[in-house]
Structures are given as structure tokens and as C-alpha cells.
Amino acid sequence: MRDLPLPLALTARLSPVVVLACAGWALTSGPFAATPTAQHKPTQQETHPTQSASAPSTAAVSKTYTSAPAPCTSLAEKTITSLVPGAKTAGKEIPSTDAKVRRTCSWNALKGFDYRWLDVSFEIMDSDAAAQKSYQERTTEKSGGGAVPGLGDTAYSVVNLTTEDKQQTREGVVMVRASNALVVVTYNGSDFETKKAPGTDEINKGAIKAARDAVATLEDGRKG
After folding, report:
1. DSSP state, residue 154
2. Less crowded by CB within 10 Å, the N or C end of the chain?
3. In the chain, which segments carry CATH 3.40.1000?
4. Phi, psi dihedrals of residue 29, rounded to the nearest 5°
5. How many other CB atoms sit within 10 Å of the CB of residue 134?
6. How distant, in Å, are the alpha carbons of 69, 81, 217 from that of 84?
7. Cα 60 from Cα 123, distance rounded (Å)
8. Contact, 117 vs 6, CB < 8 A?
9. 85 Cβ partners below 8 Å, 6+ apart?
10. Architecture of domain 64-223 in CATH?
11. What pLDDT, in 10s, does the model give residues 158-212?
């Protein structure tokens, strides 16, 4: 099918989402135990020097997820065909500077006058704390949404409507934190014949459905 030109504002709006990762690190050290004398009562740290030095180090290197899964196979084919009618289920992966920790795939199609765009991003961070910090910053920036129960450790969904040159576009974003990983789904649509956008419920449920598929893929990769 021949590609149809899109309004300039919508094209700019559908640019790949640039995601920023936050990194954290911990440095630990421990003193050697002094030899007790009659005049010096050993402290708990001096009595167990090995335990106090090794425990922080073990926590620092422990990460639930060490790499991002392949994003273009993270959704069930039936999810893609239902949310983006007419799109190739293979999707298109967006180049990343570090594919081990950040990967994104997008699907889009124009069927008749009805346009849909969907993308899924995975980000792997150095710790749960770093992922939680980034999650809080992003959800704060996108105010007006609400929690999505039963998805990852914590999840948030927000839907917004924009109008440019009388053309409406409705976009839903779902952000999920699962341990030290972030999953971000963006789903939007427009009707170029009526110039109306899909309903809030349709976009919100579609984005959440895609997010559930993506989180399941992330968790299955860990089990494997």
C-alpha cells in the first residue's frame, strides 16, 4: 500500500521516544581488625571484619536483569495486529547506543484513513534504586494519569489529547518498573477522514495490553 503523507505536527509527534537512563554505584571498604588487648575491647565490626566488608559488595553487584530483551518479539502477534491494523508484525527496531541496556521497537500503519503508532522500550539500569528514581521522575513529568495495578513492581498510565490544524491525536503512555528494569509503551492514533482521535478507553487499554505482553517477555527472559 502506498505511504500517505502525514501532517507535519503528527510526524514530529511520532518521533521515537528518547529515553534517559539513570546510573548509580556504591563503593565499600572495611578496616582490618585490630588485635584485641587487655586494654582494648573489640567492637562488633572488629570481631567480624569479613562479614562487614563483603555484605555491601554482594548487594552492589546483584541485578535482577542484566540485558534488554529483543523488543520486536516482545509482543504477541495478535496484540500487534489488534492495536496496529495493517502493520508488519516484525516491527522496526530503533538503533541504540547500547543495545544491551536500551532497546526500542515500533510498529505503525495507515489503514484507510485510520492511523496507529505503537512502540515498546526496555531500559536496564544499574540498580532497583536507579530504576525507581527514573520512574518517579518520568511519572511526575507526565502528570494526570493513574496507577496500573498488577503490572511489574509499579506501573503508571496516562492519556492525552492534542489538536493541530483541527486534527486530533490521542496518545497513551504506560511506564512500568520491574526491579532494575523500565518498560515504556507509547500508543497513539488519529483518523484523517473525520479528524477525530480514538477514544481514551481504547488507547489506554491498548497501551496497557502491550505493556503486559512486554513485561511478561522481560520476566520470561530472566527465568530462561
Report:
1. E
2. C
3. 64-223
4. -155, 155
5. 20
6. 21, 5, 19
7. 19
8. no
9. 109, 111, 114, 116
10. 3-Layer(aba) Sandwich (3.40)
11. 999 999 999 999 999 999 999 999 999 999 999 999 999 999 999 999 999 999 9
